Amino acid sequence: MTIPHDREQLLQSARSWFDPDPNLETRIELAEMIVRVEHNTDPRALGNLAERFNGRLEFGTARLRGALGAGPTRMNRVVVGQTAAGLAAYLGWIVAGLWLAVTTTICGDLDWIQMDLTRSQPAVRIRRGAWLPC
Length: 134
What we know:
There is one protein chain. By secondary structure, this protein is mainly alpha-helical. It folds into 2 domains: about 1-75; about 75-125, no CATH class. The chain has 5 helices and 2 strands; from the N terminus they run ααααβαβ. The protein has helices at about 5-20, 25-40, 45-50, 75-90, 105-120, and strands spanning about 100, 125-130. Helix 5 links the parallel strand 1 and strand 2. The longest helix has 16 residues, at about 75-90. The protein is elongated. The N and C termini lie far apart (about 35 Å).
């Protein structure tokens, strides 16, 4: 993703993120931010939106983690799904019959993430991380 440099490019990036997001909460969050930027109702809205679309969330020490919310620099179903699909596709070239351990600190999201990954990567078998009480 390219870094948006102006207001209209930023709004277009945010709008294009909105459609593939299956989570109602982050869709509402993003829609409200877009409206605030479009109508100039919050002076911080443009900076907040720019922060969320200035790059992508990256792996830290052996995991992906970040603030929950809408956009590619936040932890959400789109980012987790894209990252896991990319990792599974890459590892699929290396390991046959790949098992991917999926964990989250928000147990309710694990079912959705597992469903998203199963839909996007049907050859990958998913199991819950052993250390979570979900």
